[in-house]
User: What shape does this take?
Amino acid sequence: MSEVQDTEAAADAAPAAAATAGTAPAVRPHTGRRRNEAAHRAILDAALRLLAESDGTPVTIDAIARTAGVGKQTVYRWWPSKGAVLLDALTDRADQDVHGPDTGSLGSDLQAFIATTFEAAQRDTTASALRTVAREAARDPHLAELMRSFTAARRGALRELLARGCERGELAGEADLDLIADQVYGVFWYRFLLGHAALDADTAERLASSLTRGNAAG
Assistant: This one.
């Protein structure tokens, strides 16, 4: 039995044992929260790892639960389907790795966002997971929906950053924020999937500079 399962079993058994003994259970307000956080994190990490290693083999709830060391019912406590777990795993990792700072300068914010997006996507587990989803989305409708949801979430985060630049008057009023986001992610996916050129800090700087200059307020 894994450490997460041990913790869950011990925490769940304590109230029953206390009741059998005729005593009130000790108040431990933080134990459940810590247990839930540990199980939640273990599930997300397991889902991402399985997706990275799947090589097209379907990832199941059973496999996620087994790898995370929790019961299947624990997974269903937070997610209605495996697609929801996988989407949360990818989004959670992206939220951790990609910074969307608000420095007061669109150029600096955009450069940091693009650079961390490039860097994070090339880490082993994330890169493998993204390539699996992109490759298999063409024949698996569930992964296709996962891909659409994930990319929409990332574009939404970038669009918020661009909207702040608009509010500060750094972008022209007619600037097309959706087109700018498409240009950022167009460069990313083209280079990430085809590997014909680098996704590095220099590319991030040049892309951010080109987009801010080309859409700057007059």
In short: The chain has two domains: 3-90, 98-214. Residues 3-90 form a domain with the Arc Repressor Mutant, subunit A fold (CATH 1.10.10.60). The chain has ten helices and no strands. The CA atoms of residues 56 and 136 lie 6 Å apart.
